[in-house]
Amino acid sequence: MQKFISNNVQDTIKFGKFLASKLQKGDIVVLTGDLGSGKTKLTEGILSYFNMENEICSPTFTIVNEYTNSKNNIYHFDVYRLESEDEFYAIGGEEYFSKGICIIEWGEMIENILPKNYLKIKFSRNSENENARILNLEFIGNFRLRGEDFEDFKC
Fold this sequence. Notes:
By secondary structure, the chain is an alpha/beta fold. It has one domain (2-140): 3-Layer(aba) Sandwich (Rossmann fold), CATH 3.40.50.300. The chain has helices at residues 9-20, 39-49, 85-90; strands at 2-6, 28-32, 64-68, 73-78, 101-105, 118-126, 129-140. Strands 1-7-6-2-5-4-3 form a 7-stranded mixed β-sheet, covered by helices on one side. Strand 3 (64-68) and strand 4 form a beta hairpin. Helix 1 crosses helix 2. The chain is globular.
């Protein structure tokens, strides 16, 4: 497990850009944490790397937002409102996994049906700084990112 400390929103967005540079088609990133902990801001950073940041909105009421350009497909899920894993199947959610990069907020709710390999990022608040967040990165299964290690990342 690796840890990243974000001292503010800008750090979270910057880390999202760095993370995006390591992602490729078929990668799944599961984001967990309380409301307002930075999950959507990290996604904003990922989209920014792909020049799609002006399109972002939280998919809370639509379950999934699709972002595409000539090179990438990014699928941003918010599964908080799903009653069961069956609802994810009903929207064809598993079909997205191989079509692009999938970012799944509240992904712990469907962990039993996720592919074997993915990145899980848990957001926690820092009790010493209300703007800071602790991001714990867990590589599930054989999930690996391309390129340099996160330990080399600096804000």
